[in-house]
Here is the input.
Amino acid sequence: MPRRARHYIAGQPYHLVQRGNNREACFIEIENYQFYLELWQELSTKFGVKVHAFCLMTNHIHFLVTSETEDGISLVMKQVGSRYAQYFNKKYKRTGTLWEGRHKSSLIQSEKYLLTCYRYIELNPVRAGMVEKPEEYKWTSYHANAWGDVSWIEPHDEYQRLGCDEQERCFAYRELFRYQIDSASLHKLRKAVHYCQPLGDEYFAQLINDQYGIKVGKMERGRPRKSDVG
Here is the structure.
């Protein structure tokens, strides 16, 4: 069966997820996380992809990005994935596939779901029971978005609207994390990225159909498999 065509719209945010093959660890020690993020910093700059949020879990990754071009996301994911796999296999004297197929992606309606997607990504370690608070986990963008730590992360326009200056924005962002993401939104986020579907309302679906000729298919009913939730 041929692969479903990927459609990336320049200037629109996407939630990306990629998992380790057979759910095995992709990151074992600190050097792994550091090298992977260095690749992202280098290649996202090279291909004009703005990174708004990320989280590196032990066996999968989440990114929220916007590309200046239609092929920027694909180029970054391909080269980061390939170069990291070569590094990982050489370092640990292994062979074979590191990643579980192609990455998954979901176009996000900015004004309705973008900040929820920020929170979803950076709260992954909390939901997994690894830490109690997002600031306790090192390998996420929370430190940049919530505290203004020097970083290569580029805030989205929706984030910028949180305040008039960095201090106001960081405070407002931290306030968002006082509240849990409701179960309905969690389900929508997980389902959208699992089935590589845009996340938005009916107006948004019609808009991208009319403007870009991208038809939004119906996602399968029910919840994604538990192993695909993260």
Summary: The mean pLDDT is 91. The radius of gyration is 17 Å. Residues 2 and 102 are 13 Å apart (CA to CA). Residues 13-199 form a domain with the Alpha-Beta Plaits fold (CATH 3.30.70.1290).
